[in-house]
Amino acid sequence: MSPNYIRSFSEGCLRPPTVIGQFHTLFFGSIRMFFLGVLGFAVYGNEALHFSCDPDKREVNLFCYNQFRPITPQVFWALQLVIVLVPGAFFHLYAACKSIKQEDILQKSSYTGFYIFSVFLRIVLEVAAFWLQIQLFGFKVNAIYMCDVGALEKKFNVTRCMVPEHFEKTIFLIAMYTFTVITVILCVAEIFEISCRRLGLLKTQ
Question: What is the pTM (predicted TM-score) of this model?
Answer without folding.
Answer: 0.80
